[in-house]
Every structure is written in C-alpha cells, then in structure tokens.
Amino acid sequence: MVLKLYGNPQSTCTKRVAAVLHEKKIPHELVTVDWSKIKEPEFVEKQPFGQVPYLDDDGFIVFESRAICRYIQAKFPDQGPKLVPSASDLKATALFEQAASVEAANFDQFAAKACFEGVIKGWYGAPKDQATFDQNISTLSGRLDGYERILSKQKYLAGDELTLADIFHLPYGEMLFQAGSDLLTSKGPNVARWWKDISSRPAWQAVKGAAPTGNVTF
Questions:
Q1: What's the confidence (pLDDT) of residue 216?
Q2: Domains assigned to the chain
Q3: I want to staple 171 with a disulfide (CB 3.0 to 4.6 A). Which of 15, 74, 142, 184 is the partner?
Q4: Is the pTM of this model over 0.90?
C-alpha cells in the first residue's frame, strides 16, 4: 500500500514530511485535509491534537512531523540518501541527535513565532505584532551565530552528510523570507552557503511547487 500523508499544503509540518518523502523518492499520496475538519471526531481519532499531518502506513498511524520523518527513514533505510546515521555508529548518532536538538531549541521556536506574526496571521486577516516579530528575529539572529560557527567547520549541521536535522529547517526557513527576513542569506557566509545548498535541492523544490493532492511516484 502506498503511504498516505494527511496534511495541508500550507502546513509547514506537512511540507517537512513531504520533503523527506521526495528526498528519498518514496511513492506516496498527499491527502489534503481542510483546516475546518481537523477538530472533527473522525480526524482527532487519528491525530488526537487536531493537527496536521499524520501518516497512514496501511493502517498504522504516526503523527508529529519529526517522528514521521524518522519513521520513514527507519522503514526505508536503503532507499535514497541515508538521512540518519546507523545506530551502531555511536558518535555519528550523537552528532545527529545534537543537530536535531539544535533545530528544535535554537531555530524552530523563534522562526515559527516570527512566521506566525509575519505570514500566518495575514492568512486570517489578523494584524501583525511588529514587536513580537522583531524580538523573535533578533533572538534567532543570535542563535544563528552558533550555526555560523558550526558550519564553518563542516558542510551540514551533523557533519559532512545531509541529515533530517538539515531538512527540518526548510519549511520555516522558506517562510522567513515571506515574512520579510533575509537572515538565512545575510547572517554569515557559512549559513548562507548551507541554506542555498539545502533549499535548492530538487526534493524541496518539488515540495514547494507540489499540487495540493494526488499520488507522487518516482
């Protein structure tokens, strides 16, 4: 059975999972979920928090985008690039988990809040809180100093190979530009080089231009 990704094309978390599926060239079906339906009983039976996305693998349901991405890599370890180190390589695994934690603690929470103010509120006609936007961009700028130091020594966040930790940044990284911030291209040469690398990958370009629904085959 083809994997079914239930989400919404506007959703950053849906895009995160879709980017991994495309990167590993795994056939799947994107089933668009209307925002008005995510709190209904039929949906929360699958996703108890009423959020998107969730993955249906022949009746096995996984939710939370980063967990879904890890599941995909574990299920298809030899298809496409290996995006998580082998568990037997203790040091490489530690560096990957370190990089994944960096994304969650030092990027996502600030980028998400800035994007909420700079982009997502506009979808609903709500006013932007400029002070909140500026505060989160300022904090994110400081955190990217750490990224610049890491990336001055290696190609990607966990070493010299692309991992899920890099891909996790793509949706909100892209949305930052829509929000009016050029941090990822102006912060420093190593951050800019890294961002250009990961954001220009064919998998991400396919996700950015993907149709709202339908089967994806390779």
A1: 66
A2: 3-83+204-216 (3.40.30.10), 90-201 (1.20.1050.10)
A3: 15
A4: yes
